[in-house]
Amino acid sequence: MVNPPVSAHKRLETKKIIWLASVRPDGRPHLVPLWFVWHAGKLYLCTAPGSIKSRNIRRNPHVALALEEGMNPVICEGTATALPAPWPAEVVAVFQQKYDWEITPDDEEYTELLEVTPVKWLAW
């Protein structure tokens, strides 16, 4: 795991949307905006287990993520893993604080928590 540039820390803590790129079975990219949190050097995203992104990640865990602001990019390449329940209390608390959203594995739709371990950061 590698850490982002110090200049990116505040944006990772405060920005609301991150774009997630995963790879379809035929090699085509799949790009979607998501809510996220950054905690203890990793990125966390909630999704539905049957979503395209979730199915893609089960087949190929390599992902790329980028904050939505293009003038000051923050890009992460990493490996995504679905976490089993119970989810880390610290991550649940960060989602609650950032979005006023209590994530739980019992949610009606977003029952999968993805943890992204960064392997490369780009920022300028």
| Oligomeric state, counting identical vs distinct chains | single chain
CATH class: Mainly Beta
Under CATH, the homologous superfamily reads Electron Transport, Fmn-binding Protein, Chain A
- Could you tell me the strand content as a percent range? 35-45%
Please state the overall shape, judged from the principal axes of the Cα atoms.
globular
Please provide the ordered H/E string of secondary-structure elements. Answer: HEEEEHEEHE
Radius of gyration: 14 Å
Biggest sheet, spatial arrangement of strands: 2-1-5-6-7-4-3
Largest sheet, strands/sense/barrel? 7 strands, antiparallel
Number of domains: 1
Relative helix content: 10-25%
Tally of individual helices:
3
Can you tell me the CATH topology? Pnp Oxidase, Chain A
On the 0 to 100 scale, the average pLDDT is 93
Number of strands: 7
Q: Structural class of the secondary elements?
A: alpha+beta
Task: Note down, in words, how this protein is organized.
With 124 residues, the protein is an alpha+beta fold. The protein has a single domain (6-123), classed as Pnp Oxidase, Chain A, CATH 2.30.110.10. It is 23% helix and 41% strand. It has 3 helices and 7 strands, in the order αββββαββαβ. The protein has helices at residues 6-14, 52-59, 89-99; strands at residues 17-23, 29-35, 37-39, 42-47, 62-67, 74-83, 112-123. It has a 7-stranded antiparallel sheet with strand order 2-1-5-6-7-4-3, with helices on both faces. The longest helix is centred in the last third of the chain and has 11 residues, at 89-99. The chain is globular and about 40 Å long.
